[in-house]
Design goal:
Number of strands: 2
């Protein structure tokens, strides 16, 4: 009889534990809290994306018409 009571108590405790966890996960996060471990910048990109995909100003080459980062480093090859 004691084993049955302990078994029922364990089942009830597990049931209420899952119910509590579900309720905590359903609550909205407090304002200003970061989602997850990664914080996001105002642009919406993670740190690696800011480093890899940095925007650059492009200049049109007057000789061939392509857009390049710098006219000095650009070499028009068989275009004109």
């Amino acid at each position: 009889m004691v084993k049955l009571i302990v078994l029922v108590a364990v089942i009830v405790a597990v049931f209420f534990a899952f119910k509590y966890i579900k309720r905590v996960k359903a609550q909205p996060p407090p304002p200003g809290a970061a989602r997850g471990a990664r914080s996001r910048d105002p642009g919406g990109r993670f740190g690696w994306a800011r480093r890899v995909f940095k925007a650059e100003d492009m200049v049109e080459c007057p000789r061939c018409g392509t857009f390049v980062r710098s006219i000095k480093d650009h070499a028009c090859r068989d275009k004109a």
